[in-house]
DNA sequence: GTCACGTGCGCC
DNA sequence: AAAGGGCGCACGTGAC
């Protein structure tokens, strides 16, 4: 029985070719041509559940999904997701990642650039040197043979890394993320047009015809204009707003919210309200829904590995920035529930686990890590403890927060030592890694030019070289935490996906589905009667992720899990998810 | 008209 | 007090 099977779909039509492989990528027998690729894949899956090997999950699996049984596929190896992880291991960061690029490198041929993500391949691919699909193979190359060769090479490269076990896990987790992303795009997030409409009506008034301005915005805009002297004013133009305030004798340098909140002038609250509503109208209004949330599902596109830290990015619809107020529109189907789980205080817990700092471990053991920190070092002032710790992880050094960081440095030397070592590595031009070994990008050539000889210790002032150096330090400081949190989250969704698939269901259509993932939070859409099974799956997956990524750490990564009909209800009224631990 | 950029704000 | 990391998106602005 093959451990793996490589898949190449035909350019058009439902057929394709399969090549059984040994675990190390060696072909077992001859490739098999099939007329119905989805049926053949489903048959293999039922028989032996191999790890599927393909050029890119979003394309191959995305096309198979509609024709696969509801049980879908368990595991894959995504060559295009794995390639940049391995390039990072080999000090070759940033090279093109397509199958064609990897194949060209393997053969010492000119390497094709990656196509811009999201563009239709046929549009962007004006040159005729490479395939019209996104594999970027030259026309002479056989896609299946190229896939088999590149995959075997990737397996060899994984084995050649310093810690093959970790990198193998990282590659598997990233590939599993590809499966999840494709399925979430396919299944969509349940979205109630009725609730969304009601929200928009309450906030903005009736939907304007012809894309005009909603009534509430028009009247706010008029009131604002009157409050600022009565001259015509576009509230969306920061320049005009600043000039209008100046004419009222108020000198501002920016119109940011935090400035306006402290401003004692009748125009300030009007402008704040205008900004709030106009943003909802522009970013998540009727036009947004027409485009992204049709037929009861919000279907964004997720970009696995779209952030260098391993976080996902999204393309279109702002999937990872759904405003809190609109979460009321995320509503389960009748008879179904949303199981919403978020990992509270994930990043400080990651820091505690990575650094093994005894004080931080103690602080987290009681449940609320910030409160524990506060009891230990800030006379119980939780807000200051939280501010200080976030400052330490983000690189804040100035102002009051800088002093809080100094307190933390004395009380939690191991934890602070870890982030500060990461910062120093970055400042001196080095790279840092996540817990599973994801490598951060090296500094750019221009960074090296600019900062040459201008080490942070030799700061002569606030010249741009020193600023760039510090900025690089903040980036690497944060990278070790953010990227390791992403490691954990990927392991979480991979394990959760596997457990959800194992939950027995009455009928095929009634399966729990992972429908949302946002850095440290997941939503599962499930038949109501399976809610408890899903809760268990979430908790078990979190525990498994902890063990896989952090080994024997005593640090817990508790998942705050709620079952509800709407996302808003599940999240409660807290305006700070870190505070959820309080109640 | 398109494009790149800056501003500002949503999320983590 | 406003020199904290990572994103995506809409808008205004200025260059072409």
From TrEMBL:
Keyword Kinase: no
Enzyme class: transferase
DNA-directed DNA polymerase family A palm domain sequence ranges: 323-530
Transmembrane segments: none
Region annotated Disordered, chain positions: 1-26, 448-470
EC number(s) on file: 2.7.7.7
Gene3D superfamilies associated with the record: 3.30.70.370, 5' to 3' exonuclease, C-terminal subdomain
Assigned keywords, A-Z: DNA replication, Exonuclease, Hydrolase, Nuclease
Catalytic activity: DNA(n) + a 2'-deoxyribonucleoside 5'-triphosphate = DNA(n+1) + diphosphate
PANTHER family to which the protein is assigned, alphabetical: DNA POLYMERASE I, DNA POLYMERASE NU
Name of the protein in question: DNA-directed DNA polymerase
């Amino acid at each position: 029985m093959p451990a793996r099977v490589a898949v190449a779909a035909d350019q058009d039509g439902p057929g394709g070719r399969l090549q059984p492989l040994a675990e190390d990528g060696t072909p077992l027998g001859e490739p098999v041509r099939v007329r119905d690729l989805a049926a053949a894949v489903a048959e293999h899956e039922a028989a032996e559940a191999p790890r599927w090997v393909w050029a890119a999950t979003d394309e191959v699996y995305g096309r198979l999904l509609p024709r696969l049984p509801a049980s879908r596929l368990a595991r894959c190896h995504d060559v295009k997701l794995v390639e940049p992880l391995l390039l990072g291991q080999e000090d070759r960061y940033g090279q093109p990642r397509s199958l064609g690029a990897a194949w060209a490198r393997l053969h010492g041929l000119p390497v094709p650039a990656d196509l811009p993500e999201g563009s239709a391949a046929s549009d962007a691919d004006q040159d005729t040197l490479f395939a019209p699909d996104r594999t970027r193979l030259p026309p002479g190359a056989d896609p299946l043979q190229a896939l088999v060769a590149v995959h075997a090479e990737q397996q060899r490269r994984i084995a050649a890394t310093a810690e093959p076990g970790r990198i193998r896990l990282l590659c598997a987790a990233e590939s599993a993320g590809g499966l999840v992303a494709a399925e979430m795009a396919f299944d969509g997030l349940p979205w109630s047009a009725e609730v969304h409409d009601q929200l928009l009506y309450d906030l903005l008034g009736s939907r304007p015809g012809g894309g005009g301005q909603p009534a509430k915005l028009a009247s706010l805009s008029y009131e604002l204009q009157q409050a600022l002297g009565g001259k015509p004013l576009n509230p969306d133009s920061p320049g005009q707003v600043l000039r209008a305030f100046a004419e009222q004798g108020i000198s501002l340098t920016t119109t940011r919210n935090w400035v306006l909140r402290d401003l004692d002038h009748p125009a300030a609250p009007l402008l704040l309200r205008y900004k709030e509503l106009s943003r909802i109208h522009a970013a998540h209004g009727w036009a947004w829904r027409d485009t992204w949330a049709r037929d009861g599902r919000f279907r964004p596109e997720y970009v696995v590995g779209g952030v260098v830290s391993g976080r996902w990015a999204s393309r279109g619809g702002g999937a990872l920035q759904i405003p809190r107020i609109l979460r009321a529109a995320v509503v389960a189907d009748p008879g179904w529930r949303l199981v919403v789980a978020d990992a509270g205080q994930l990043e400080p817990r990651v820091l505690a686990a990575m650094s093994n700092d005894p004080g931080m471990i103690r602080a987290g053991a009681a449940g609320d890590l910030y409160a524990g920190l506060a009891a230990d070092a800030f006379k119980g002032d939780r807000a200051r403890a939280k501010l200080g710790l976030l400052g330490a992880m983000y690189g804040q050094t100035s102002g009051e927060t800088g002093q809080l960081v100094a307190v933390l440095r004395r009380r939690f030397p191991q934890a602070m030592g870890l982030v500060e070592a990461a910062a120093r590595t970055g400042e001196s031009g080095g790279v840092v890694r996540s817990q599973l070994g994801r490598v951060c990008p090296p500094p750019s050539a221009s960074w090296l030019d600019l900062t040459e000889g201008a080490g942070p210790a030799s700061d002569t002032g606030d010249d741009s070289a020193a600023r760039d150096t510090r900025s690089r330090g903040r980036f690497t400081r944060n990278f070790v935490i953010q990227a390791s949190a992403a490691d954990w989250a990927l392991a979480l969704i991979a394990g959760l996906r596997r457990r959800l698939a194992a939950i027995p269901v009455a009928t095929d259509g009634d399966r729990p589905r992972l429908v949302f993932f946002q850095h440290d939070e997941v939503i599962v859409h499930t038949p109501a009667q399976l809610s408890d099974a899903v809760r268990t799956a979430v908790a078990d997956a979190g525990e498994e992720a902890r063990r896989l990524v952090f080994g024997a750490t005593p640090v817990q990564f508790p998942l705050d899990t709620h079952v509800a009909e709407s996302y808003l209800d599940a999240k409660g009224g807290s305006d700070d998810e870190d505070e959820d631990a309080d109640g």
